[in-house]
Design goal:
Layout lengths: L1 E4 L4 E4 L1 H6 L19 H15 L4 E8 L5 E12 L5 E10 L1 H21 L4 H13 L6 E7 L6 E5 L5 H7 L9 H9 L3 E3 L12 H6 L4 E8 L5 E9 L7 H29 L1 H10 L3 E6 L4 E5 L18 H4 L2 H17 L3 E9 L2 E12 L3 E8 L1 H28 L1 H26 L6 H29 L7 E4 H11 L1 H6 L3 E5 L6 E4 L1 H18 L9 E9 L2 E7 L28 H11 L3 E6 L5 E8 L3
Parallel strand pairs: 17-19
Antiparallel strand pairs: 1-2, 1-5, 3-4, 4-5, 6-7, 6-10, 8-9, 9-10, 11-12, 11-15, 13-14, 14-15, 16-18, 19-20, 20-22, 21-22
Length: 632
Amino acid sequence: MELLDIEGRLLYMNRAGAELLDLCGPQDLIGRPWLALWEGEHQAAAREAVNRAKVGRRGSFEGFCHTAAGVARWWDVVITPITDDGGAVVQLLVVSRDITERRRDADFRAGQQAVLEMIATGASLDAVLTRVVQLIEQRSEGMLCSVVLLDDDGIHLRRGAAPSLPEAYNAAIEGAPIGPRAGSCGTAMYLGRQVIVTDVLDDPAWEDYRHLAVTHGFRACWSTPIVSSQKKVLGSFAMYYSHPRAPVPAELRLVDVAASISGIAIEHQRAQEALRHSEERNRAILRAIPDLMFILSDSGVFIDYHAQDPTALMLPPNEFLGKAIADVLPPAIAQPLFAAMKGTLQSGEPERFEYSVEYAQGRRFREASVVRLDGDKFLSIVRDITDRKRAEMDAAVQRRELAHLGRVTTLGELSGALAHELSQPMSAILINAQAARRMLSHEPVDLIELRATLDDIIANDKRAGTVIERLRALLKKGDGTFEPLDLNEVVTDMLALIHSDLLARRVSLRTHLLSSSLPVHGDRVQLQQVLLNLVLNACESMSAADVDERLLTVTTTIENGFASMSVADLGIGIPDDQLTAVFEPFVTFRERGLGLGLAISRSLVVAHGGQIVARNNPDRGATFTCILPLRP
């Protein structure tokens, strides 16, 4: 914050402003013209804002100035007039907000967009990579960057772009082989992973090129491989510093962004080269493509076709060429084809749909992709996906089998507790039945007491029946049945089933269930299986804790329009770098676990259109949360 007199001279500056300008104190600028802080067009904008404030209006602008240390900072400035009792402007109040990072971020995003536009418009690879290097160098003082390419032989380095590095250095590494001691870049490409060298003098990665680096004043170098979409190493992006230092997270994110954009540029350039040099080969490939292709007019009339195997056509060509879609195709195919044409016309993007056709040899599955062609036509590419669909159906069967096996295995762990859960009502039935028999031998029979005893038998029988039905549902094998459910009821039923196991494990249970119903659409057994896996994992994580610290908390609520079910424990927690990996198959922290429970749980939750996440609690333990769409 600053205070100016009516002539624009600085009367006051707070200490925060002085520190941001790298001044020893506000006194360094007191009495000097405030406009002198600004340069060029920014000084003109500042003068206009001051003039507005002098006549009683509010002035504002965005501009940058250099600090006493030579650092450029951007500011959002608002100038407000201060008036005396008569309404005359006597002083000006200046409030400046540092927006340097915001402007840098905006400039960086604009720079990224400009690079992508260069790629899209066919700019040379050298120009694109040079722009990427310059874009990253602008983000950090004292940083020099380079892109080094990997030769097609996969062994030698080739020059990419390094406008700020000495030419002698660039020439020295041209054609050098990659390897574990080939500097940061050569080593990163050789290992296929990021290489961070904080000091060239003592890092083995620079053993073969240490003298070269020292000669040109490089002491730190961080290199990230540039990889293709197929994970093939294409080159590396490197950051150099003249003094030893380690990167901060923001710099690592920068190098990742640079490597990603460079990879897009290199892949695009290679694809363009391949396209230019293989037109005839592409035509030969087109003739060999097994997919069916159809060209249609904008009114839906078949104009032309390609079919390597004419027997794959639903109709002979003379029966569909020159005719409209609706005249030759059944509605089950015609309607989605019309919808795809309309969709790609509106969005300009390819539209896809699947359908099936019954042949004498059996049902075949097809995928049609529809795109615009020549402005007023459509191209429909039809691919046979029968093998894929059958593989998907087989995979779905295997997932159901695996989910069923998971339930059986989990219930096997609960066998002792479940036996206890059943033995209690069965014992009560036996005792009450024996008591009823004794009552019948007395004269007269006490009908009231006998009726109460029989009611107890009925109640315990129903209790045992409920447990058995829940077990049968969990052990049932077959397709899932999606239906309207109350998530609170799902949770309550499962907690009742494992009540005895929690007692056996000496785990205390606390529930915080939403007071109202929690409507979802799903499969009861699958959701109970998810909850069962989470509860057992939580119990296992607390098995080494003192008994009075074994607390399990189950919560249901509504968050951001979604149903939420959470299981929290006070166990050992999860390593921070494993919070996502725990959902991968065969990743487990249980001594006898197979690592499939959470993987199955995630697949079941995803099948319900939801997601499952894990986080460590602030104090200790972990919380697993399932988020499901609410039923309309």
